[in-house]
Amino acid sequence: MSGGLKIRDDLSSYELRWLARRERGRTAARMYAIANALDGMSRAESARVAGMERQALRDAVVRYNAEGIAGLHDRPKGRPERRLTEGEEATLAAVILRGPDPDRDGVCAWTRADLCRWMATHFGKTYHPSSLTRVLRRLDFSRQKARPVHPQGDAEAQRRFKKGGSAPP
After folding, report:
1. How far apart are CA 40 and CA 13, in angstroms?
2. Secondary structure of residue 137 in the 3-state scheme
3. CA atoms in the 13 A half-sphere facing the CB of 73
4. Would you list the DSSP string of 42-109?
5. Which residues contact 129 (CB under 8 A, 6 or more apart)?
6. Digit-coded pLDDT (tens) for 57-92
C-alpha cells in the first residue's frame, strides 16, 4: 500500500498466501488482500480482487498490524442482554406452571401471544411471540399443550370405555 497505511512485514506475501490456503472465508480473503498489497498492488485493486471493499481491507490491515495473523480472524459476535431479570423469568415460569385463570386472565390455556400480553401488563416489557419462544426455551418450556379435558367429562365412564366395558343403560 504505497503512500497509505504501512503494513507490518514480519511475514512475506508468500507466507501469507500459504497461510490463507489453510483458512476459510473472510479470514483467507483478508490474508490474500494483504499479500497482494505487500506485492505492490493498489489498495483498491487488492480489495477488489479479494472480494471486499477498500475500507474492509484498511480495517484488516489495522488489525493485522496490531495483532498479527490472529487479528484477521472473525471476532465472536456479541449477544444482546436479556430483557427479563432472573426474578421476572422465575415469575413467568411460575405463572406458566400455575396455568391461567379464565376469570382473571381471560384465557383457558396460555399461548405465546397471551403470555406477551401478560408480560406487558405485569412487567411493562413488550415481546413479539416469536421472540418469546427463545425465553421459553431457556426456561425449559416447549410449545406442547396438554390434551384438553371437558369440564363436565365423566372420568368413570371414560375409564370403563378404555377397558372395553359397556356403558350404563
Report:
1. 10
2. helix
3. 9
4. -HHHHHHHHTS-HHHHHHHHHHHHHHGGGGGSPPPPP-PPPSS-HHHHHHHHHHHHH---HHHHS-SS
5. 111, 112, 113, 115, 116
6. 999 999 989 988 888 898 888 888 889 999 999 999
Q: How many residues comprise the chain?
A: 169
Question: 81-104: b or e for each residue (b if 16 or more CB lie within 10 Å)?
Answer: eeebeeebeeebeebeeeebeeee
Residue 140 CA to residue 154 CA, distance in Å, equals 33
Residue type, 88: E
pTM for the whole thing? 0.48
For the chain, the distance separating the N- and C-terminal CA atoms, rounded to the nearest angstrom, is: 97
Residues 83-101 have pLDDT tens digits of 999 999 999 999 999 988 8
